[in-house]
Amino acid sequence: MMFTSTGSWGLYKAPLSKSLLLLPTVLSVLLTVLPPQYQDMFIYNLQAVRQDKQFWRLVSGRLICLDLKDTFCSSLLIYNFRIFERRFGSHKFASFLFGAWILSAFVDLLLTEALRFMFELQVDVLPAGILGPVFALFVPFYNSIPRVQVTQLLGHVSITNKSLTYIVGAQLLTSSAYMWIVACSGLITGMFYYSNKLAVQKFLRVPEWMARCGSVLLEPVFSDSEPTAEAPLGMGATLDIQRQQRMDMLDQQLLLTQLAHLRRNAQQQQAQTGLLNWNRFFPTLRHRGQNRHQEGPQPQRPPYTHPPNNPDVGEEQVARLMEMGFSRMDAQEALRASNNDINIATNFLLQH
After folding, report:
1. What's the pTM value of the predicted model, to 2 decimals?
2. Which of 48, 126, 254, 299 sits most deeply, having the most CB atoms within 10 A of its CB?
């Protein structure tokens, strides 16, 4: 099973995500074997910031995780969130991380001061590492990644393509006593930056010259080769069998998604004039392969007309699908077939 429905192409076209995976992990492991005085430089000590004016700890204490469990969980989340770098580009992805990293430092101080003032809870040390931006990425993950049901446990608990990500986030949340403060800070800054309150995205962003320099430095070192079109699904299987297995898997996943959607909206579907047939709009992958090998004239079919009750396609939804890389025609047809449900349209386009 894929980690999410956003693809399994490793770190292709995600050099920044790859650098955030490798460099902090190597430094975290290295600090475990160095003398303790080196680790002290990377402790996120807020008491030293307030009393001793060691403001440099707001930088060094928020770069490297000193707990290997935090390193492992944050690396898994960064790997999963690499979809945003592919979708929006390395520059926008870096700007989001940079803005969340800056804002979360101020929110950390505000939250700890509020706890001390309201509940007399003195918090001197917070978990170290780039944890604030990692938690901030849950905001666009929740808002922009469609949820697809994979299976059900005991007939009631739904398991989706996003469940594993939330489980890893919950594991990171419970790894230390005050991790919840860092998590709240990251979520607050993520919502603030994602919603672009006070035009914060205009001011807290990576400059163009820095993005170009980073591209020159990072891409030759951390870029991955383009993945092959076919990935092996079974040991010893031929390419034809592998392709057939992949087609069957995608068709089955699409069918499960449609059935789950129809069950949730049974009353609305009864008021419409019959169920929609996806294959009238998009041929399945199996039929696409067969059509390419058929020769000779094909019988003419009458053109399909959309049901009169189909709503008009919203330009905003079409624009969102086009930002993901789909063509305008495919986006419009998917939205018409899904009654303007952008989640179902996105899932179908990703699977086909």
Report:
1. 0.66
2. 126
